[in-house]
Amino acid sequence: MKRNEAENKISDGSLKKEMRVRPIKHGTVIDHITAGQALNVLKILGISGTTTAVVSVAMNVPSGVLEKKDIVKIEDRELKETEVDRISLIAPDATINIIRDFEVIDKHRVELPLQLEGVMKCDNPNCISNTVEPVISKFTVNKKPVELRCIYCDHVISEGIAEHLI
Ligand SMILES: Nc1ncnc2c1ncn2[C@@H]1O[C@H](COP(=O)(O)OP(=O)(O)OP(=O)(O)O)[C@@H](O)[C@H]1O
Ligand SMILES: [Mg+2]
Ligand SMILES: [Zn+2]
Q: What global pTM score does this model have?
């Protein structure tokens, strides 16, 4: 047994899970974020360098299923559905864990919505959603691979999704 494992051994002989940062009492853990997307997740949540929130970010953490993943932990915050929808676009395998009294009390995977309204900007400068008309952008969503099709002009966005978020 490695030294780290020995230190984590608890009285019943099982191994306590190693945690990279101090556990949080209440808040949200966004786990299994596609490696490289943690900063985009923060952006979606409106968290910048001037935030007063208690936030920890882990990048490129080794993980069984995904090989590498990012993790974002935020104290005293629960996410809105619109925030989770945006996260699903850039991190389709993410899980949202709600923490209360240090325990995970709820866990669910993000789910790509079937349609996006007012979430993404169409690339086509002539698209009606980009004119002075008060037309809200609308995309239909293909899940695998993630592809978004503008319902007005058929333009497809498949790369740089974070940069298209409104
Ligand atoms: N109190 C806490 N403070 C901070 N992070 C926590 C806390 N409790 C759990 N986590 C983190 O939340 C995530 C989910 O916790 P859980 O105990 O369900 O892990 P898991 O069994 O590996 O889950 P999964 O099957 O989703 O990978 C992990 O990344 C874990 O480190
Ligand atoms: Mg896990
Ligand atoms: Zn368009």
A: 0.87
